[in-house]
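Lab notebook page, bench 4
Experiment: in silico fold of construct C2
Operator: M.H.
Input chain length: 145 residues
Purpose: comparison with the prior construct
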Amino acid sequence: MSTTSNLKDLIELLNDGEKFYDEAATKVKTAAYADLFRRMARQKQAIASDLSARLAAYGETAPQGGTMLGSLRKFYTDMRASMTKDNEAVYVGQLEQTEDRILEAFRDDLTQSEDMELRRIAERHYPDLKRTHDEMRDLKRRLAA
């Protein structure tokens, strides 16, 4: 796959994450979770912005939307959450899966890129992505206990 194709795919994944977190923040009752979700949405937005700037250097325009899978996952989560009293656990579980997808794609596509500027972007953002991934994983485990 080409660098620009990988960048577009990753930006779409980040857009999925941003929209999903923003929506989840409006659906949960616990203010701390809503704040966490909004913070994570902003992180996804910032990384997508950095990658979009790099994509522009190739003369390409960044996608504004997300993936079909992301839309389906959000719909599925909304349906499940509407049928349970513990909608926070449902959202956290699905958001953690979104973090898995983003982290894997980021690691696979960017850290191995031949584009040195892209690798610098990856090196700058990867620790934060890993931290937010681990934070969601730990929250999912706490809610399941």
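Observations: The first helix runs from residue 3 to 27. The chain has a mean pLDDT of 86.
Next step: discuss at group meeting.
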